[in-house]
Design a protein that fits this description.
The chain is α+β, with helices and mostly antiparallel strands and about 180 residues long. It has one domain (about 30-175): Umud Fragment, subunit A (Ribbon), CATH 2.10.109. The chain is built from three helices and eleven strands, in the order αβββαββββββαββ. A seven-stranded antiparallel β-sheet has the order 1-2-11-3-4-9-10. The chain has a four-stranded antiparallel β-sheet with strand order 7-6-5-8, with no helix packed on it. The longest helix is centred in the N-terminal third of the chain and has 22 residues, at about 5-25. It starts with a helix and ends with a strand.
Length: about 180
């Protein structure tokens, strides 16, 4: 075996080991456009301790809306969530008791407009998106997951509030780029 082949095998082994070790330590790669791309570290947290504005890692619900979103390419396949979904990084914008008002132009939470929260009727291929969720007070054990970073984020503006227990933990950017 040549030195080049030995070097390649060693590099592949170290990369694989590093990926598994990083995953075990809570490091995740965000490749969606909802937040800056890069490495985030997630720390498992009791969802009941989440506060509005916290950056969280959450699992999409295993339902027809999310399956269609994955089929259309809005959500990545992955490990760690039911149905073969990859976890998502979003901001817990509204929790139990918060008032959420939804219009096509913007989402308001407790009277404050959320930047980059306009809602599209069709996607980039002119396919119809789900109906607009209803405005109202966030029910107990629910959370609105949004991104104020990206105008085209697949989040609660399209599927409404989700169960609080879909949140797996808090997320912290480690190394990101735009």
């Amino acid at each position: 075996m040549t030195l080049f082949k030995i070097s390649l095998i060693t590099l592949a082994g170290l990369t694989t080991f590093g990926a598994f070790a990083g995953h075990h330590l809570g490091y995740r790669w965000n490749k969606t456009k909802s937040l800056p791309s890069g490495i985030y570290r997630y720390v498992p947290t009791d969802p009941a301790l989440i506060k509005p504005g916290d950056l969280v890692m959450a699992c999409p619900e295993d339902n027809e809306i999310q399956k269609e979103a994955r089929h259309r390419g809005y959500l990545p396949y992955g490990l760690g969530c039911a149905g073969g979904f990859a976890p998502l990084f979003k901001i817990a914008m509204a929790l139990h008791g918060d008032q959420v008002d939804i219009t096509p132009k913007a989402i308001q939470i407790n009277g404050q407009m959320i930047k980059n929260s306009s809602r599209l009727n069709t996607d980039s291929q002119n396919r119809e998106l789900p109906p607009m969720p209803k405005s109202g007070v966030v029910p107990e054990d629910k959370v609105w997951l949004l991104s104020d970073y990206a105008k085209r984020s697949w989040d609660s503006r399209y599927f409404g509030p989700v169960p609080l227990n879909t949140i797996k933990g808090l997320a912290y950017p480690v190394w990101t780029f735009e």
